[in-house]
Design brief:
The structure is a single chain. The protein has about 290 residues and is mainly alpha-helical. The protein has one domain (about 25-280). About 85% of the residues lie in helices and about 0% in strands. It is built from seven helices and no strands. The chain has helices at about 10-20, 25-95, 100-200, 215, 220-230, 235-275, 280-285. Keywords: Coiled coil, Membrane, Transmembrane, Transmembrane helix.
Length: about 290
Amino acid sequence: MPIPSLSETDLEAYRNDLSNPEKSTGTLFITLTGLYQRFAGNEQLLANFEYASELHSLENNYASKKEYYNKEIAELKRQFKQLDNRIIAAEQKLRHGIPDDLMVMDKIIAEQESIVEDQEKLNNAESSIVEQVRIIDIAYGKDLQKLEQQQSNRNTPLNIKFSAFNEQIKQAEKRITLKASAISIIAIIGIPLIIDMSLVSLGLPALSKNTNNLIFTHYTFLITLILVELFLAEKIRSRISRMLSISYLKDSLGTLQNLLLDNKKQISKVESNHNISISEFVKQNYTT
């Protein structure tokens, strides 16, 4: 099953959403969180691709070494077979007893000495090859263990990294919401206050003259405040929230763009180093 991943198309669509005044800031923050979650898929894919590529190279290298030593072992077996034939031939020469001819006897002795010498060389060569095979087997096991540990070390920081991203977005949204609420209150109160002060300065009479009651003295303020709350408050809150949010959201989009670019560079590097295509890897592992 394919991992949900982030693409340039997703970023472009979100960039268009930021320019759309119909999109609420709440929706934009939710979408941003979703984009980071999708990018976690890109990073997981990269980690899996790196692991699979390194494993593939490690296995190929091990197989190449094993093939080399298997050929060496096959050659040793051939030489041991030849040595066995020489031993049989030497034994056959002595089957009818020790020859009287000294020259023949010298040749037989020389052949036996040569057989012993060659057998010792072959035994040493065999021991050396067995030791080399043991060494590469141990090294291969250690490399596999190291690779598994590296994969584990990749996954843990990934989870922490994207948990931190999500927390940063949540905290930023809370800060902006609180700030927007405070500014909105000032604006919602400020509009009626300005209207009230303007009308008072123009000499608009209060409902009741010579009264100290603030309600009757500033009835224009109260009426305007009610009207603003009923018809304009939500738009004011939305506009202020968007103004405060849009800068953070654009910066976050830029950060995500850079992260995606770096992710692609890392994938290209792995492809180059291990001569493996990411598309082929995805096809083999993430498609049904």
